[in-house]
Amino acid sequence: MRFFVLVIGLSIASGPLMAGCNKSLLLFDSWTSEPINSDKVRLTSNFTYKGDRPIRMLDAKAEFRDILGEFIADFALERDISLIKGATHQVVKTWDLDFGLWVDFNVERLLDLNPTDINQWVCVEGVVYQDGNVEKF
User: What pTM was computed for the model?
Assistant: First the structure.
């Protein structure tokens, strides 16, 4: 029985939560947040592609946490995107602050926190290079 529980635990732990992540391929240049009205926040994020090989598809997510590690927000980046080394990319997201209790986003904290108290990164889980080769991290 213990073996069975261990196997189940390991299979769960090795799932998506343990997926590989390259945090140096696509870097944040800057981000800004602004209220649109009392119910919405606009987040503008700018990124630079640091890879040596051109890509045509990307599996990546941008994430924000406070300096103590509490989750603030995340979003998936556009999947079908072509980037060459040094290329910049901008993403503009708008969040409705009235998501309901089932969402664990604290986007409004981006408006109030000192920017130096926010850690942000892009987790790239995979890319398709222009030559068709696939790399997963």
Answer: 0.78
